[in-house]
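Q: What residues go here?
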């Protein structure tokens, strides 16, 4: 489990135009690709335990973090420490975030991941 093969790893459909692939994880860190259809909404929320960094790989998003609204494009990121409200709306089809969590999101793990 030290190598991630993106071509042989399938997307997990989350519904409403959002899908994810778990790239890799340890008990203390997790990386996840999240792909959005244009207009798909990552509803604003906060994590009780997990710190998150979301890096834009492709496309663009309107992001809101603690009430601050910004347009993020490939190469941009936002940081959401635990208890920090954050959410996104995809502005382009196939927009992709690389989400990194600490500690690992055990709720993302299935036998397929």
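A:
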């Amino acid at each position: 489990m030290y190598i991630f093969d993106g071509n042989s790893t399938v997307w997990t459909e989350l519904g409403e135009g959002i899908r994810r692939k778990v790239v890799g994880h340890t008990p203390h860190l997790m990386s996840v690709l999240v792909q959005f259809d244009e207009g798909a909404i990552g509803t604003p929320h906060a994590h009780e335990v997990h710190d998150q960094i979301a890096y834009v790989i492709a496309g663009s998003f309107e992001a809101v973090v603690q009430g601050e609204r910004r347009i993020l494009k490939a190469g941009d990121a936002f940081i959401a420490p635990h208890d920090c409200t954050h959410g996104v709306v995809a502005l382009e089809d196939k927009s992709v975030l690389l989400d990194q969590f600490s500690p690992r999101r055990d709720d993302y793990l299935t036998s397929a991941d």
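A: Context that may help when evaluating the design: The chain has a mean pLDDT of 95. The chain has one domain: 15-104.
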